[in-house]
Amino acid sequence: GAVVSQHPSRVICKSGTSVKIECRSLDFQATTMFWYRQFPKQSLMLMATSNEGSKATYEQGVEKDKFLINHASLTLSTLTVTSAHPEDSSFYICSAREPSPFRGLFFGSGTQLSVL
Amino acid sequence: QQPVQSPQAVILREGEDAVINCSSSKALYSVHWYRQKHGEAPIFLMILLKGGEQKGHDKISASFNEKKQQSSLYLTASQLSYSGTYFCGTEISGNDMRFGAGTRLTVKP
Fold first, then answer.
1. B chain contacts of residue A58, beta-carbon cutoff 8 Å
2. Which of A20, A82, A88, B51 is the most exposed place for a label (fewest CB within 10 A)?
């Protein structure tokens, strides 16, 4: 099956610093990648949809200047949390889909961000 | 635009059946079902694209009523390995996957 690699798996940073999370599709070209945020025992909240070569589409309420998304190639999307604050602490997870509309999403293993 | 999922939690004994429901107020392009175990990424189970479509493999199947914008996931003769949180994901435009709140399924011996 398709593999999506996400790094780092865990990051602890100081308030005010920026953190970059990478999401790579290893064996397929992902024209679209999705970024989600998940709080403990809660659902996956869509933050943004990232299309290769174009600007990401952000969900209402998600600050695009704070959560910078770049989808520079068909296999790599990055999420940068800028000037992180403790309230940004969460589990961030990316997913990618193959070009076929009949396939589901493949998820990365997620990144647990803790902002001190 | 998030789908509504029910029930929130289900506790079963091995061999029992369960149904998880998912509904949307919007016309849907597709419905997906995923299972997530604690500390792991969600795993894709199946996708339904057509109204009235039913799919399944092994003892897990799903239906999609396009007119009602409802989908149900059926787990029959449950096994311990079925435990986890099940999410339905819905798409309206075909590129905007949103998930329900999840159903926590616990299968006990």
1. none
2. B51
